[in-house]
Design a protein that fits this description.
3-stranded antiparallel beta sheet; alpha+beta
C-alpha cells in the first residue's frame, strides 16, 4: 500500500512524502507554510492521481 505522509522539515515547512509498500520514500513535495495547505495537497493528489497522464519529456 502506498502512503502519503505529512511531516515537518527542519525549516518548519510541511511536506508530503509518498512512501511505497516497502517503506521507501519515492517522491516528496515542495514545502507548505501550513499543515492545512499540505493536507489539501495530499487530498488533491489522492483524488486526481489515478487520472494523471504520464508524459515522458526525455524523448
Amino acid at each position: 500500500m502506498v502512503k502519503i505522509q505529512i511531516h515537518r522539515d527542519r525549516a518548519g515547512e510541511y511536506r508530503l512524502r509518498f512512501v511505497a509498500a516497502n517503506n521507501q520514500t519515492v517522491v516528496w513535495s515542495e514545502g507548505y507554510q501550513t499543515k492545512q495547505g499540505a493536507s489539501y495537497a495530499a487530498q488533491w493528489v489522492k483524488t486526481w492521481a489515478s487520472s494523471a497522464l504520464i508524459i515522458d519529456l526525455t524523448v
